[in-house]
Each structure stands twice: as structure tokens, then as C-alpha cells.
Amino acid sequence: MTALSILDLAPIRQGGDAADAFRHTRELARHAEAWGYRRFWLAEHHNMTGIGSSATAVLIGHVAEATRTIRVGAGGVMLPNHAPLVVAEQFGTLATLHPDRIDLGLGRAPGTDRRTVRALRRERTEGAERFPQDLEELLDYFRPAGADRPVQAVPGAGLGVPVWVLGSSLNSAELAAQLGLPYAFASHFAPYQLLEALSLYRHRFQPSEYLDRPYTMAGLNVAAADSDAEARRQFTAVQQQFVSMVRGRTPGPLPPPVEHMDAHWSPEERERVSQMLWASVVGGPESVRAGLARFAERTGADEIMATTQMYEPSATLRSFELLAEAHASLGAESGTGA
């Protein structure tokens, strides 16, 4: 049975603030652990007033302290924004504090706009072009330190923190396959090359010290509620944010849902948003169960990373509770368990 995990952005809601977002993220992680989710990941974004997970490593520590068994990690850290040594030290510290529970997913995009990129990198201009070299440097910091290594990650050396390649293109799939690393595709917002990238990764995968066989993860938007109608209503919060992106604007705080989207987008915008949100399951319990099964079958992913952004925190909790129930039901049906 496909494993199930959660991607959270610590959404800042209209009328709320980052403190509220962090409190709700921590509460969600506790519930996720109780419901049997495998991982709870947080994503790095900058200069976005609706996303609170900019200091990703700090928030991972906050979540890990509140939980006991669920794996907590980055989905991901945008490596071009950071020196590999600093990332190795941060995640080496997290792995030391929370042994065998920390994951490090890495992406090559900056996760922000150009002006913020300049503010993040200061004098560094190479950006994403150096991602393969920076990734290999980072992997090396997690290996046992030898006498011939003048620079070490302390802590970090010898800890073997699990590293994932994140992406939404064939280039990222090729790199993950070449290095023999697990691969996570960001289909929850950029699904266009999902199936092609997963196929490429599987066919070109090279066994490594990290994996002996390919391991894939696919992102999925989920809006689950007690009825199809209520799920569709809750999903309009995400749809409104994607309309902003289609219009070239940075999405602000998560808005409340609306009864109908017709007044909030044009037919052309509706089509573009629908394409961006193709990898979505929206509905009541039966619809979610069927949609989850279809997505798992279509992608063949080893793991699904679900993300839910609803305006009411209680609705977010209910969505993930229903998703966990659907996943358990499918596991029982297949005889493999959840």
C-alpha cells in the first residue's frame, strides 16, 4: 500500500498571524502522528505573507519537539539559498536532537521572487546552476569525516541524514536517478511532467549507498469534508490563491472560502488554475477514497505527500482525518494495512 504523508506550509490566514500558524501546524503534526501518517514536512518560501515556514529548520525543530515518532523534515529546503555546510549543520543538529526522525528534501528553485533572491544570496549569483555540485557537497558532509577533510559539519558528519531530491521537471528526475536518491515530485502545484518524470527516474535509477531501488513520492492537494459540497466550498480558499498566481501576484494570507468561484475568476483563469491543480482530490469520504486510489494507481508512487490548505484550522484537521481513514480503508481492502 502506498504510504501517506503530509506537507504543511504553516499557512497564515486572513485575520491571523504567524504565531497562530505555528500553533496550528504543531497541533496538526500531533494529530498526524496519531492518525498514522509517515512524515510531516514543511516547505521553504520567502516574502510570502501567507506562508510562515520561511525558517524551515527552526520550525521543523518546533514540530519535532511536539511529536514522538512521526518523521519530520523539509519538503524542502531550497539549496541555492544556502551554503551546503550551513544546511548540513542545521540538519545535523536536528538529527542529533531527534535521532532517526529527520528528513532533508532539497530543491533547486529559490522559492521566491527575484528581488528576494538577491536579498537571500547577497553576493552569491550562481543560483540554481550550482545545484548538482552543492547537493554532492552536502551529501559529503553527512558521510563519516576522514582525516583528509579540512571542513566538517559539526554536528552532521557521519549522521547520514536521509536526503531527497525535490522537483517538478525531468532535470530533477535525472539528477535523483543518477545519484541514487529518493525523488519527490511537486505535482500539488506543477503537475505537468509528473508521469514522465517518474518514469524517467525509475528507468535511469542507479543503485547507491542510499537506495538499492527507486523510491518515489508525489504531491497531492486534498480537500476532504463530510460532503462533496462542503469540500468544494473549502477548496475555494486554495483556488483563490492560485488565481492570484495566474494574475502574476504573490498570494497573500489564506482567504476564507466562498460559495462560488464564478465571480472570482474568468473562464481562462479557471482553466489555468484547473491545470495547475490537476493533482487534487476534493470531496466527501467516498470521493476522497476513490480519488486517492486513482492517484496512487496512476502514478505508482511509493508515497503520497498530501497538502491541505483550508481557512478554518478545524476543517484542515477534519480533512486529514478523513484522508487517513480513506487510506486505512484502502490498505485493509488490499490486505496490506495502512
Structural description of this entry:
The structure is a single chain. 44% of the residues lie in helices and 15% in strands. Helix 1 (18-35) packs parallel to helix 11 (313-334), helix 3 runs parallel beside helix 5 (131-141) and helix 8 crosses helix 9 (267-276). The chain has helices spanning 18-35, 56-66, 84-97, 114-121, 131-141, 170-179, 194-204, 228-246, 267-276, 285-299, 313-334, and strands at residues 3-8, 39-42, 71-78, 102-107, 163-167, 183-185, 216-224, 280-283, 303-307. Strand 2, helix 2 and strand 3 form a beta-alpha-beta unit. By secondary structure, the protein is α/β, with parallel strands linked by helices. It has an 8-stranded parallel β-barrel, surrounded by 9 helices. It starts with a strand and ends with a helix. It is built from 11 helices and 9 strands. It has a single domain (3-334), classed as TIM Barrel.
Task: Write down the Rg.
Answer: 19 Å
Shape field: globular
Largest sheet: 8 strands, parallel, barrel
The quaternary state of the protein chains shown equals single chain
Number of strands: 9
Number of helices: 11
In the sheet with the most strands, the strands line up as 1-2-3-4-5-6-7-9
Helix- and strand-based class?
Answer: alpha/beta
CATH superfamily: Luciferase-like domain
Q: Give the fraction of residues assigned to helices.
A: 40-55%
Overall average pLDDT? 94
Poorly predicted parts = none
Report the end-to-end length measured between terminal Cα atoms: 7 Å
| Total tally of structural domains | 1
Can you tell me the CATH topology?
TIM Barrel
Listing every helix as H and every strand as E from the N terminus to the C terminus, the arrangement reads EHEHEHEHHEHEHEHHEHEH
CATH C-level label = Alpha Beta
Beta-strand percentage?
5-15%
